[in-house]
Amino acid sequence: MHLFPTTIAGSLPKPAWLAEPNRLWPPWRLAGPALADGKRDATLLALKLQEDCGIEIVTDGEQSRQHFVHGFLEHVEGIDFSRKVEMGIRADRYKAMVPTVTGALRLNDRVHACEARLARAHTCRKLKFTLPGPMTIVDTIADAHYGDRVKMAMAFADLLNAEARALASDGVDVIQFDEPAFNVYMREVEDWGIEALHRAIAGLTCATAVHICYGYGIKANIEWKATLGSQWRQYEQIFPALAASRIDQVSIECKSSSVPLELLKLLDGKDVQVGVIDVATDTIETPEEVSGTLAAAAKYVAKEKIIAGTNCGMAPMQRDIALAKLEALAKGAQLARERL
């Protein structure tokens, strides 16, 4: 593949006929067989829209999941969704109603077989599939069984590994674990977070990635970022450990962020998904801006190692704005290829 292949972090906005728009936890507007059909239709639409916009490593757009974490948890035994509690997540950055682990964890069956196989059958492009990372899962669920975050994370890692192996067998080219908790619990990342990721990717022969970010473009995250100062140096602590890890790719937000790009040197040897699209604003990036961000990253990461992407998922965004941003992403990457 040529320089700067394009991808998205994972999610796209759902059609208004499928779920309530512009919300992070959108209620479904269909039920029963109609909902299953709607999810399949939305997945096909997401693939087509990405292809039309020029995205080269496509995803299912997470159209079958109400939330990137709970979409996985719904298929796990040992979790009681009727026993929801309000809990502070991401070190109490914001509160959410989360289900409770009440027993030993095990998968009921495959989690994402339907959408993964559907996507694989309907695109010839490289296919990336996203799963929540173990640390982020345990930060987004209440525990009334294990009594130990690490023990519970490793249990989830085993379940994630089973699904990831099956996704690889379905023909998925890249499996990405979303770990926004990795920029909140720095010491834990080094102590056990990467170990849990290694457990989740054990035996995989497809490419593996970890997505780390400062979150969706929602009010709580925007306000939190405003408190972090002029330079966001959290990654300085964990990038060396990630560079030494067995993960192939690291996804980082770079556009409109205060992450010093020289920190990317600490990821030496890894492919880097460089976020060139800001999901926290409705302003559409120009191809020039996208190309400029890629050029800036290329000072610290070998051009051959850079993948052009979005800062984070686009689930809560307006669909027309999201699609315009994807077109800018593709055009900007092409411009960067011509210039670098």
CATH fold assignment: TIM Barrel
Report the β-strand fraction as a percent range.
15-25%
What is the N-to-C order of secondary-structure elements (H for helix, E for strand)?
A: HEHEEHEHEHEHEHHEEHEH
Largest sheet: 7 strands, parallel
CATH level 1 class label: Alpha Beta
**Any idea how many domains?**
1
Strand neighbour order, sheet with most strands: 1-4-6-7-8-9-10
Given the structure, what is the number of helices? Answer: 10
Shape: globular
Helix content: 25-40%
Number of separate strands: 10
Mean pLDDT: 94
Q: What ranges have pLDDT less than 50 throughout 5 or more consecutive residues?
A: none
> What separation lies between the terminal Cα atoms?
16 Å
Structural class: alpha/beta
Q: Radius of gyration in whole Å, from Cα?
A: 19 Å
Word description of this protein:
It is globular, with a radius of gyration of 19 Å. Helices cover 37% and strands 19% of the residues. It has one domain: TIM Barrel (Alpha-Beta Barrel), CATH 3.20.20.
How would you sum up this structure in a few lines?
With 340 residues, the protein is of the alpha/beta class. It has ten helices and ten strands. The protein has a seven-stranded parallel β-sheet with strand order 1-4-6-7-8-9-10. A three-stranded mixed β-sheet has the order 2-3-5.
Question: What is the fold's blueprint, element by element?
Answer:
Elements: H1 32-53, E1 57-58, H2 70-73, E2 76-89, E3 94-107, H3 113-122, E4 126-132, H4 134-138, E5 142-143, H5 149-169, E6 174-178, H6 186-201, E7 207-211, H7 219-225, H8 235-243, E8 249-253, E9 271-277, H9 287-297, E10 306-310, H10 319-339
Parallel strand pairs: 1-4, 3-5, 4-6, 6-7, 7-8, 8-9, 9-10
Antiparallel strand pairs: 2-3
